[in-house]
Amino acid sequence: MSVSHRVKIMTKGTEYIARRADDTGFIHYPQEEHDIWRQLYARQAVNLPGRACKEYLQGLDALGMPKDRIPQLAEIDAVLQATTGWKTAAVPALISFGRFFELLANKEFPVATFIRRKEEFDYLQEPDIFHEIFGHCPLLTNPSFANFSHMYGQLGLHASKEERVFLARLYWFTVEFGLLQPKDGPLCIYGGGILSSPGETLYAMESDAPERQPFDLLNVLRTPYRIDIMQPIYYVIEHIDMLDEIAKMDIMAYVTKARQLGLFAPKFPPKAKAS
Q: Which own/partner pairs from 39-47 qualify as long-range (CB within 8 Å, at least 24 positions apart)?
């Protein structure tokens, strides 16, 4: 692959290479990266039954993504377009708030085209293709989740820089790290940050360490988080359709109130400064 089809990314001091599509739209990955996908998929195939919400598992079945290689984005797009009208958008790594909101508002889900290494199997603070495709795309086949994501993009597109910081917490504690507790069923996962992380899947569901609180929009907007640790608190919704109810709320009014009240004290230690 030529240098023009690679983008270098630094995450936690590790260099990654984002793969770019060739002229036909095909992304070429080396075999060792397909092997990482296979191992991650196999590990989560064991971890997720009984822990992932049924809507996610239904979406995973609908996508029918390969277990032994990194899927091409066109394969994912074909199913998303047919179910909810969404598609993916290849990005190198983390993107600006503005670009992120723009993509979601256009029903395009950003997918970073690199994959983690073995030493970062359990948790990767930068979103890789396994996180984006395996963690998020199955639920994008669900109308409530897809609608919430679209609404969120439209909302953020018109928000100020200061408001977007508060909106980021809403996304974090729902789409990324949300849990679901049906009245007639066990606790389960719908957040892609958990579903794509073998370590956080077991931590979120089996450990007594984190708090699990009922979803409250104002509290969510006031809760600090860190991207480089297992989460000390998760917010729980009752059913996936509750995302439709949240989407209908006056979210920006809650953002205004949250800004007035300020943030809660963090439930984690401050990040160590680099020496």
A: 39/118, 39/121, 40/115, 40/116, 40/121, 40/130, 40/134, 40/196, 40/198, 41/67, 41/68, 41/130, 41/134, 42/67, 43/121, 43/198, 44/134, 44/195, 44/196, 44/198, 44/201, 47/198, 47/201, 47/202
Is 5 in the active site?
A: no
Task: Give per-residue pLDDT as tens, 42-70.
Answer: 999 999 999 999 999 999 999 999 999 99
Q: Give the pLDDT mean for 138-163.
A: 98
Q: Chain-wide mean pLDDT for the chain?
A: 92
Catalytic one among 33, 55, 120, 196?
A: 196
Please state, for a pLDDT cut of 70, what percent of the chain lies above it: 93
Whole-prediction pTM: 0.92
Q: Which of 55, 176, 197, 239 is catalytic?
A: 176
pLDDT at 247 over 90: yes
Reply yes or no on whether the pLDDT at 261 is more than 70: yes
Catalytic residue among 136, 150, 200, 239: 136
Mapped onto helix, strand or coil, the DSSP state of residue 259 is helix
132 is catalytic: no
Is 196 one of the catalytic residues?
A: yes
> Catalytic annotation on 176?
yes
> Given 108, 120, 131, 163, which residue is catalytic?
131
